[in-house]
Design brief:
Elements lengths: L1 E5 L3 E2 L6 H19 L3 E9 L3 H9 L4 H18 L6 E4 L3 H16 L3 E11 L4 E3 L18 E10 L5 H10 L4 E2 L1 H12 L5 E2 L1 E3 L6 E2 L2 E6 L1 H5 L2 H8 L7 H4 L3 E6 L3 H15 L6 E5 L2 E3 L2 E2 L10 H8 L1 H11 L6 E2 L2 H31 L14 H13 L3 H22 L1 H4 L6 H22 L6 H8 L41
Helix pairs in contact: 2-3, 4-8, 5-6, 6-10, 11-12, 12-13, 12-15, 13-17, 14-15, 15-17, 17-18
Length: 506
């Protein structure tokens, strides 16, 4: 089983925002889970450096575009590890390997007769890096996303015959109803195709920052004709001397925000057809994190620095908050108060106190020794494992984490109902006490494995405190997985109380 997952490559006109951390962290959760199930997985993220807005920011700072990109790429490369995300390759579109592949890819489209030259005139939003029709602008003629006036551009470009692939794209969508998820995004993309496709420019004139076209080096590849190709190009040089295309393509799943749906769900598969490649296996389109009902982004001036949150709460807590605060796939409002509440009420109280109570009781009542005893399993953990796996297969990250958390709450209810502190008062209940304590450790062991894709530091810490083996294989999310062990001691708090700053300071 092979599982290749990509995030969009992010614009480097500024430092990472919480939205970038959101996509990167969610992708890491999905890849970690697939690895638990034995998949040969590969996770790609990176940065898009050849955008017009990147070039302009470099000019404003008095820097050569490449010098600026080299500097700003550093915090972007640090984003994933700071969020406890493990990526297999970090791509930059200024990589020589990428630039070489893009030229070869576009040449194949040209040789196939799908590229021609024409004059384009229209409104261009630099923030979106996209030409806008009159219908896509507000009544005041502004970009509906950035609320800025697009620029009127008229220049001679090279165009891709997107219109020639309308029927083939419709056939793709009709034969693969899960090609784009969620369903309403599938319907949006298919409706756009059925409404009639227009050819689009794949080059820009008069801008030196970019990849020169192989047949016309006076023009550079338009940002999307460059950036989208990264999903393939990375496989050709991510491992020196190795070409991973046969291994991972087209077993690829693209994560993307809804603002770039058209490029990924329509333009990209058509470009792949033109260049002789199979389309991706699946695309998942997620919504926005909203603050005061507006998308959180640097360009809108309402960004939250994800690393500031990590410095206060830790990466696992921030990942947990992002995954549960908004149903993945939909728009949803978030607040800094929300992470504080989830840290204290759910992570510290529900999970942290459960581990502290369980280990303390094993240490106090059984001198740290865990034995199976005599009790019925408190939870159907086999069913939980199947449910969570099925949800993650369809990218229901929030629903999967909610299900695991119901297990955490179920164990808390179990310990309160069984009251081991009462059983410990009578030696006649010794076997029953052993069984209750075993069920608690057993449940926590399985839940630690199930939580580890979401909380990659916390899951192994729970197993260590319970003196259970560190194996995170998904088949350990079941009843009876805990081994009888000695030496369990009262665990330190998983999520210790911290002096939290006011919401506006975070």
């Amino acid at each position: 089983m092979r599982f290749y997952l990509t995030t969009p490559i992010y614009y480097v006109n500024s430092t990472p925002s919480i939205g970038n951390a959101y996509t990167t962290s969610i992708g890491d959760m999905l890849v970690r889970h697939q690895r638990q199930r034995g998949a040969d997985a590969f996770y790609l993220t990176g940065v898009d450096e050849h955008a017009t807005k990147v070039w302009r920011v470099a000019q404003e700072q008095g820097l050569d575009a490449q010098e600026y990109a080299d500097r700003i790429a550093v915090p972007w490369r640090e984003l994933a590890p700071r969020m406890n995300a493990e990526v297999d390759f970090f791509i930059r579109t200024s990589d020589e390997g990428h630039k070489t592949f893009v030229r070869e890819f576009l040449q194949r489209m040209y040789d196939n007769g799908d590229v021609y030259q024409d004059v384009y005139a229209g409104w261009y939003c630099v923030g979106c890096e996209e030409f806008k029709t009159e219908e896509e602008l507000t009544e005041d003629g502004l970009c509906s996303i950035h609320l800025t006036k697009p620029e009127w551009i008229e220049e001679k470009n090279w165009f891709f015959r997107l219109s020639a692939y309308q029927e083939r794209l419709l056939e793709l969508y009709d034969t693969r109803p899960d090609f784009v998820l969620p369903d309403f995004r599938y319907n949006e993309a298919r409706s756009f195709i059925a409404g009639g496709l227009r050819d689009f420019s794949i080059s820009r004139a008069g801008q030196p920052w970019g990849i020169p076209l192989p047949w016309d080096e006076s023009q550079v590849a338009y940002v999307w004709a460059d950036a989208l190709v990264n999903y393939l190009s990375a496989l050709t040089y991510a491992r020196p001397g190795e070409d991973l295309r046969d291994r991972y393509w087209p077993a690829v799943h693209h994560l993307l925000g809804k603002d770039i749906l058209r490029f990924h769900c329509v333009y990209w598969p058509a470009m792949l057809f033109s260049a002789g490649y199979e389309p991706p296996q699946q695309l998942f389109v997620h919504g926005y994190l909203l603050l005061d009902d507006r998308k959180i982004s640097k360009s809108l001036g309402n960004a939250i620095d994800p690393l500031d949150l990590v410095d206060v709460y830790g990466a696992d807590a921030v990942r947990y908050w992002m995954a549960r605060a908004v149903s993945f796939g939909r728009d949803g409002s978030v607040s800094i108060d929300g992470i504080r509440e989830r840290y204290e009420n759910e992570l510290a109280n529900d999970l942290g106190n459960l581990l502290s109570r369980t280990t303390a009781m094993v240490a106090q009542y059984r001198s740290g020794s865990l034995r199976r005893g005599d009790a019925e399993p408190p939870l159907d953990l086999d069913a939980l494992g199947a449910d969570v796996g099925e949800r993650l297969d369809r990218f229901d990250v929030t629903g999967a984490l909610d299900a695991v958390w119901e297990g955490v709450r179920g164990l808390n209810q179990y310990v309160n109902a069984e009251a081991p502190w009462q059983l410990a008062k009578d030696e006649a209940n010794a076997a029953r006490l052993d069984g209750v304590l075993y069920n608690l450790v057993d449940g926590l062991t399985a839940l630690a494995v199930a939580l580890s894709p979401f909380l990659p530091e916390t899951g192994p810490s729970i197993l260590e405190a319970l003196r259970q083996e560190s194996d995170l294989s998904w088949d350990r999310v079941r009843n009876g997985v805990a081994a009888e062990v000695d030496g369990i001691a009262a665990a330190k708090p998983l999520f210790p109380k911290i002096e939290l700053p006011p919401a506006d300071a975070a």
